[in-house]
C-alpha cells in the first residue's frame, strides 16, 4: 500500500500504521489513523487520504479473493459440504461485498456527499452547543473534501502501473505470510500441511484480524480462529496450537521492534517540528 505514495514520509506512515495494528484495536482504528496521519503531512483536507484508503481496500480485497480462491480450489478442487469450506466461501463473498462497496463509494461519492450534508445540518446545532466555535463544518468544506476525494480517486485510477504493482505486493504478502507459517510447521516436524492449506488458514486469520473488535492485536480471538482452522484441516490440536503461537511470536518479534522504532521516529520528528515552530 505504500506504493500509493512516492515520498519516504508517506511510506514511513504506512509502517507506523502497521505498529498501531499490532498494539491497538484493529480494523477501523488503523484506517482512521492512516487517514489522520497522512492528512497531517499532506496539503488539503481529508479527501485525498480517504481516497487512498478506499483504493487500498479495493486492491486488498481483490488480492484476498484471488489468493484465497486459488488456494481453496487447489486444495479441494470442487465445492465441498464441509463447514470449513463454507467458512472460506463466506469469507471470500464478504470480502467481495466490501470491495464492491468501496467501488460504489468511489463512483457514487456525490450521494455520500449529500447524505453527509444532511447529517451535518441535523447535528450541527448540538455540536455547536457542546463544542462552541471549534465546530465549523459548513457545506463548502464538505464540498471541498468530496471534490478532493473524487479528484484523488481519478488520479490514482490513472496510475495503472502503481495499481498493478500494489496488487502484486499485497498478493506476495499473502504468500510470504503463508511461507512463514509453513516453515514453522516443518520446524516442529509436521509435514502434512501444504502451502495452499496454510494459505487458506492465513486468509481466515486476516479476515478476523481486520474485524473492528476492541482487542489490541486480536489476541485470543485470532488464535482461536487460526487453531480451529488448522484442526478443521485435520491437524492435531497440540500441533495446531504450536504452529499458531510460534508463527505469531515470529511475526511479533519482527514487526513490533521495526514498526515501533519507526513510530517512535515519527513522534520524535513531529515533536521536534512542533518545538521549532514555537
UniProtKB/TrEMBL annotation:
TM annotation in the entry: 12-33, 54-76, 88-107, 164-188, 194-215, 222-243, 249-267
Keywords: Cell membrane, Membrane, Transmembrane, Transmembrane helix
Chief localization: membrane
Topological relation to the membrane, as annotated: Multi-pass membrane protein
Pfam families: LPG_synthase_TM
Compartments, as annotated in UniProt: Cell membrane
Keyword Transmembrane on entry: yes
Superkingdom: Archaea
GO cellular component, one term: plasma membrane
Protein family (similarity comment): Belongs to the UPF0104 family.
Protein name (Swiss-Prot/TrEMBL): Flippase-like domain-containing protein
Gene source species: Candidatus Marsarchaeota G2 archaeon ECH_B_SAG-G16
Amino acid at each position: 500500500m505504500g506504493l500509493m505514495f512516492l515520498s519516504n514520509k508517506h511510506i514511513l506512515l504506512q509502517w507506523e500504521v502497521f505498529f498501531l495494528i499490532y498494539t491497538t484495536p484493529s480494523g477501523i482504528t488503523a484506517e482512521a489513523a492512516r487517514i489522520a496521519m497522512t492528512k497531517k503531512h499532506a496539503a488539503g483536507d481529508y479527501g485525498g487520504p480517504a481516497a487512498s484508503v478506499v483504493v487500498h481496500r479495493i486492491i486488498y480485497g481483490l488480492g484476498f479473493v484471488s489468493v484465497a480462491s486459488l488456494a481453496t480450489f487447489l486444495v479441494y478442487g470442487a465445492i465441498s459440504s464441509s463447514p470449513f469450506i463454507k467458512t472460506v466461501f463466506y469469507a471470500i463473498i464478504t470480502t467481495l461485498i466490501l470491495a464492491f462497496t468501496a467501488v460504489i463509494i468511489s463512483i457514487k461519492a456525490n450521494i455520500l456527499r449529500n447524505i453527509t450534508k444532511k447529517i451535518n445540518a441535523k447535528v450541527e446545532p448540538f455540536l455547536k452547543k457542546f463544542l462552541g466555535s471549534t465546530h465549523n463544518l459548513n457545506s463548502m468544506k464538505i464540498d471541498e473534501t468530496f471534490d478532493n476525494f473524487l479528484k484523488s480517486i481519478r488520479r490514482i485510477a490513472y496510475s495503472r502501473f502503481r495499481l498493478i504493482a500494489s496488487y502484486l505486493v499485497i498478493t506476495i504478502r499473502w504468500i510470504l505470510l503463508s511461507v512463514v507459517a509453513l516453515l514453522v510447521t516443518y520446524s516442529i516436524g509436521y509435514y502434512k500441511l501444504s502451502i495452499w492449506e496454510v494459505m487458506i488458514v492465513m486468509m481466515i486469520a486476516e479476515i478476523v484480524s481486520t474485524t473492528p473488535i476492541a482487542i489490541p492485536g486480536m489476541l485470543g480471538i485470532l488464535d482461536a480462529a487460526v487453531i480451529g482452522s488448522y484442526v478443521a484441516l485435520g491437524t492435531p490440536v497440540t500441533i495446531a496450537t504450536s504452529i499458531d503461537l510460534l508463527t505469531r511470536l515470529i511475526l511479533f518479534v519482527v514487526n513490533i521492534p521495526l514498526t515501533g522504532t519507526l513510530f517512535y521516529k515519527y513522534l520524535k520528528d513531529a515533536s521536534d517540528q512542533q518545538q521549532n515552530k514555537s
